[in-house]
Amino acid sequence: MWRDSEEPHITAISATIGEVWGQDWETLHTGHGNGALGAALYLARKHSDKTLRQLGGLAGGMQYPAVTMAIRRLAKGWETDKALARKVKRAEKMLLVNDVTPARDAHFSGLTTIFP
């Protein structure tokens, strides 16, 4: 779903989500109700300077309100689903430990498609 050649940090986010969820990203991003896409969008939003509109473009043409709703659904879901909350927290820790998420305003200057 993410294109390796253009956004290595975004690719690292999806790979980490796949590792934490225990499935490959290609399967996860098309699944409904698993929280994987929302988690990837949440982490990309939190650790990049991309706007919601840009993230939507990177997510294969999602409109920015859909990106907002995916992130909100994730946040609402982790209030009641502690396993989901642990997965997102673990993924974020793994990304930070491996130092693959850039600081805001770094590395994410160009808009590219990250979903095949």
Per-chain topology:
Blueprint: H1 8-21, H2 25-28, H3 36-46, H4 52-58, H5 64-80, H6 82-97
Helix pairs in contact: 1-3, 1-6, 3-5, 4-5, 5-6
Q: N- to C-terminal separation? A: 5 Å
At CATH level 3, the topology is Chromosomal Replication Initiator Protein Dnaa, Chain: A
The figure for the number of domains is 1
Indicate the overall shape. Answer: globular
**Number of helical segments with 4 or more residues:** 6
Task: Give structural notes.
- The chain is 59% helix and 0% strand.
- The protein has helices spanning 8-21, 25-28, 36-46, 52-58, 64-80, 82-97.
- The relative contact order is 0.23.
- It has a single domain, classed as Orthogonal Bundle (Chromosomal Replication Initiator Protein Dnaa, Chain: A).
- The protein is globular.
- With 116 residues, it is an all-alpha fold.
- It starts with 7 loop residues before the first helix and ends in a 19-residue tail after the last helix.
Feature tags:
59% helix, 6 helices, globular, mainly alpha, Chromosomal Replication Initiator Protein Dnaa, Chain: A
